[in-house]
Amino acid sequence: MAMLMDGRAVGQRMLDACAEKVKAIVAARGTRPCLATVLVGDDPASVTYTRMKRTRSEAVGMRSLKVELAAASTTEEVVARVAALAADPAVHGILVQHPVPRHVDERRVFETVPSAKDVDGLTLTSFGGVSFGLPGVGYGSCTPEGIVRLLDAYQVELSGRRAVVIGRSPILGKPMAMMLLARDATVTICHSRTRDLGAIVAEADVVVAAVGKARFVQGAWIKPGAVVVDAGYNAGNIGDVDFEPAAERASLITPVPGGVGPVTLAVLIDHTATATARQLGVTL
Amino acid sequence: MAMLMDGRAVGQRMLDACAEKVKAIVAARGTRPCLATVLVGDDPASVTYTRMKRTRSEAVGMRSLKVELAAASTTEEVVARVAALAADPAVHGILVQHPVPRHVDERRVFETVPSAKDVDGLTLTSFGGVSFGLPGVGYGSCTPEGIVRLLDAYQVELSGRRAVVIGRSPILGKPMAMMLLARDATVTICHSRTRDLGAIVAEADVVVAAVGKARFVQGAWIKPGAVVVDAGYNAGNIGDVDFEPAAERASLITPVPGGVGPVTLAVLIDHTATATARQLGVTL
Questions:
Q1: I want to staple A73 with a disulfide (CB 3.0 to 4.6 A). Which of A17, A77, A162, A215 is the partner?
Q2: How many domains does chain B contain in total?
């Protein structure tokens, strides 16, 4: 029976460390780090997520700046608002909550965030910087970086181990593969066109599920002793992994909720602290 | 016994098509596409490569602009020269021959190339654009894109097949993985820390060797009927694959030389034609 990876505890430790970083920044420069959250429209889940991000940033002593735009906003209107935040020296990190409404050109909006303030790690520069291992160029996408932090917290060996990432989104699957590769794992990326997925997952020492389909990853696929990370969050608090049978075989597994989510959020806050320190020239 | 993939023939067909594109651009705008080649120092292999690139571009009717900088040039000097080419509307594509001397910050130099002129596909924006499937954002790195063109020329099915990329460089292994993923292959990235490489290669329907070690990939590793692409080019015209035994088992294999190299070069020229057309607003 697998041991649970406690994302709430790991996330809270990270947030506690962030609170110390905020204190150091305020002591050095008299400026509080500021995270701007940009929400376009009023999707209930997105409203909840942005509120959580603001609450957590304030809990560690940061300022948060709430920017809300009507669902009918044009790409140009969203870009203009983000560009204003980009130019504002009092704003250190910018989070554009995704998904944005379909009629808005999401990529153009993301690319308006300068990489120095791209604390959500969504720009091409951030992805490239992480993929090529360029220190200080952009920030890692929060969910995959959170997963690496969680694996580190449980001292999961990655070098030379086989990792299978299920999903290939720009926000999760692709940067996850690049981050596991940077840690010297042998990485396989699977997706909807992958044949015989079960046999491929069965080769993995570490499995990351990021498909967005409830209980899609079957317990019988898991190699005994493997580490299973569930980045899915489907209706009814259900992950992408069929938890009970997977937990029978895995050595470590993330619960849903309380696994990947809290660490993702803590990474965002930590990036904001780091971004502020870099912008103000403070060494943390 | 494998059939050879004839990179010279495929590359020449691409160059012939480029010559037609150049004619169309000249007819529409009276401007010849121009590729600038930037060589820092006098490494003999780099001298040869840049000369080949100039010769091929001129052969299809382009202008080529030869820029040579002393090996002792500082990063700032190289950046200034590339920035001047970036600002010159008569230059449509910029190739910075790599590797540059060790004391030069290669990434800073690459990033000075605007993505519209990044015909070698080395900037973070180009890598991100290719990785995320954003049409018109930058250009693919030439060698992996050439490999995809070669596979296409031989109608190699990629969707749902298992591809193994050996090597994880920013110029070859990583973009190769992203391009194969875009074609719906299930992709595994291997490298120096990979354990039991032979067993992993044995699972592959398509193998791309990009390690830079002569005859590193053994014939016995190849699954019978697999497609083997050798992107290595080691001293003495020797590839990364132990050719004879691999050819016994593969269905298709690239020779070295005459496989990946000529297609890589043709991709660079083709990118330059495309970049020119985009910059001048010509529809090809």
A1: A77
A2: 2
Instruction: Assess if residue B156 is contained within a domain.
Output: yes
| CATH number, position A52 | 3.40.50.10860
ipTM at complex level: 0.96
Residue B23 carries which side chain, given as an amino acid letter?
Answer: K
CA distance A40 to chain B (A): 22
Range of the domain at A234: 142-260
Supply B264's token pair: 């890589």
pLDDT tens sequence across B71-98? 999 999 999 999 999 999 999 999 999 9
Residue A3 lies in a domain: no
The answer to whether A187 faces chain B, any CB pair under 8 Å, is: yes
A273 min Cα distance to partner chain B (Å): 24
pLDDT single digits (tens) A130-180: 999 999 999 999 999 999 999 999 999 999 999 999 999 999 999 999 999
Residue contacts between A and B (CB atoms, under 8 Å): 90
Does the residue B127 lie in any domain? no
- Angle A200-A206-A210 (CA atoms, 0-180°, nearest 5)? 75
Question: Catalytic annotation on B97?
Answer: yes
